[in-house]
Amino acid sequence: MDTLDVEVLIVGGGPVGLSASIELSRHGISSLLVEKHPGTSIFPKARLISTRTMELFRAWGIQEEVERTGMPREGVLAVGVGTSLAARDFLRAAAAIQEDAPQSPTYTCLCSQDLLEVILRRHAEERPVAQVRFATAMTETRTTPGGVETVVESGQGRTLVRSRYLVAADGSRSTIREGLGIGVEGPPPMGHMISVMFDADLGGLPGDRRAALSFLRSDPPCAVEAVDNRRRWMLQTGYDPAEGGSAQDFTEDVCLAAVRSAVGIPDLPVRILGVMPWLQQAVVATGFRDGPVFLAGDAAHVATPQGGFGMNCGIQDAHNLAWKLAAVLRGIAGEELLATYEAERRPIASRTVEESLVNALITFRMMQGKLSMRESIEQQAGRRSSEGLILGFHYRSDAVVPDGTPEPAPEDPYRTYVPTARPGHRAPHVWLSRQGGRVSTLDLLGPSFTLMTPAGGGWLQPAKEAAHRLGAALTTVEISPDGSAPLTSPTWADEYGVGANGAVLVRPDGHVGWRSPGGEASQDALAGALAAILARS
């Protein structure tokens, strides 16, 4: 049996596992990703890519490719309700597209998971410190004093993989989670579901019947999703085993009849491309870590599909975890930093799953006829706006140094995002002017820590000395209000809550770790903040 040594083993080759591979590579960490399936997903599954995830893709250099591969935002970021797509009672509400949104340099995108995974896989495989192996299954794993030993098998034989850490991104039925004895919390499964992918020309429908997602009281009640908004579509419906239903009931004839009922055209030419059963759940793992093993994505939390939160939450798990693993592996941080992964991500996952459950309950009420079509479209459309959840979440952990300021308290924290550079929050997007154009504050952030400060604030030398003292990579960015420095913004200091001598320390995951509103620039204060974040005594 061959032996392979890597710093991190990733089990699972979906969007979360591939994102973990990409992000670890950005930090120079060697990894092996194994996926039991022979290739990336052939089913669309998730489609919605949130604003925050698009920001990460922007940092990885794939934002434009994802946008080109996905569907045009205009006309598809909409929701509809009716008895069928062709019915006179069909109502549609389109999202307000913000091409120059004030909260981000990018915006929500729809790109089906089968196409997205191809992009992520290629990007992961291009990194020299990463190995990606599909058609390779994990068969054994055990923890050791030095980390984890795992046996993986493929057509080329068996390999013993020795790694310091293991990231379990192996899905909602995670064998790794089950092997660790970690349970899940949440309500019982909400339904046995069937997804039917089909090919059909819906060009005969009026233009206002096209939507990213339509909830239909057809026979059977279902949801219809746009996959490419041209020929590929997805129908989702359910069955009840307690009443004798099963996935085997969905023969080709049954699926054809369901599609034609949903569209509202009895003789519509349809080709069934695939049928996939799945369980609708809203659960969170009781723990996200066991020693050197970390759960991410659906292995850690499963949201209902309503809202499109699950994949995005998982990708952000990987983004939060990767820099912490890198800092510990490189000896920059203490092992205690890794405890902040669960402390930070589990509360966010719990809230995300809860909000997806709210969305699902609205859908159930609509399907059961407890809401009128008008009430249904108003509630469904209202829940499509979730920037407060997507961008407004914040962390509380030992890797955040509080500054004593209160957190924003919008009336509707699900919909309303209030930008703030308060420690724990995502660093706000602000456009900065520079020679040749403009750049977002988010574009200045990389795999290292970033210190942002007004030009002339006196932080350049203290930052250099503090970084040297702790052996941490730190980039210092000066921003001028009046053009006296290469980067200029008359509003940045106010938006980040600092005075002329203030500074904001942003962690490698784009969240503020520490803020000094003003006073004398201090090497000791900055070094102390870095030491606290990195769990250095």
Query: What integer value in Å does the Rg equal?
Result: 24 Å
Report the sheet-strand fraction.
Answer: 25-35%
Total separate domains:
3
Per CATH, the architecture of the largest domain is 3-Layer(bba) Sandwich
Mean pLDDT: 95
Q: What's the total number of strands? A: 26
CATH superfamily of the largest domain: FAD/NAD(P)-binding domain
Sheet with the most strands, sense and barrel status: 8 strands, mixed
Number of helices: 13
Summary tags:
537 residues; alpha+beta; FAD/NAD(P)-binding domain; D-Amino Acid Oxidase, Chain A, domain 2; Glutaredoxin; 3 domains; eight-stranded mixed sheet; 26 strands; 29% helix
What is the fold's blueprint, element by element?
Elements: E1 2-11, H1 15-26, E2 31-35, E3 48-49, H2 51-60, H3 63-69, E4 78-82, E5 91-94, E6 109-110, H4 113-125, E7 130-134, E8 137-144, E9 147-154, E10 157-168, H5 175-180, E11 184-185, E12 191-199, E13 213-216, E14 222-226, E15 232-239, H6 252-263, E16 271-280, E17 283-285, E18 289-290, E19 293-295, E20 301-302, H7 310-329, H8 339-367, H9 373-384, H10 387-392, E21 431-434, E22 437-440, E23 449-454, H11 460-470, E24 474-479, H12 492-496, E25 503-506, E26 512-516, H13 523-533
Helix pairs in contact: 1-4, 1-7, 7-8, 8-9, 11-13
